[in-house]
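Good morning C.,

I know you're traveling, so I'll keep this short. The sequence:
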Amino acid sequence: MREVYGALDADLPILAAIGMRTCFDVAAILLGVEGDLPFTKKLDELVQRKKIGGVDKDRLALLVDAGSASVHRGWKPKPKELDTLAEILEHFVFEAFVAPSRRGRLDADAKKLEGNVPSRKRKIVKDGAKAP
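The C-alpha cells, ready to paste straight into the viewer:
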C-alpha cells in the first residue's frame, strides 16, 4: 500500500493502478486464497469464505480489470478514476483486516468494562417498598 501511495503522490497513475491490483492479489493470499488462481477465481473464493460480499466482488473485479488494463494495455487512469480505485482497495483492506481486529479488541475491552460498571441502585420509598 505504501508503494501505491508513493506512485499516487509521484503522479504515476499507471504504476498506481498496477500496484492496486497487486495489493488486492497479496491481500487475497493473506486471507487464505491460493495464489495461483486467476483473479476471477480469487474473487469467487473470497465470497465463498465470506470475506467479501457481492457488491465488493463487483468493485474488486473492476479494480483488477483496471490494473490489468494498465499493465497490459498501458491504460492511464485519470485522477478521479484513481481516487475511486484507491477507495475500493482501502475499503476492502479495512473490512478484511482492520475491522475484524478492531471488533475483537472492542469485544475484549467491552467485556472488561462490563465488570467495572456499577449496577443501578433502586430507590427505597418511605413505606419500605422499592421504587420502580
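Safe travels,
E.
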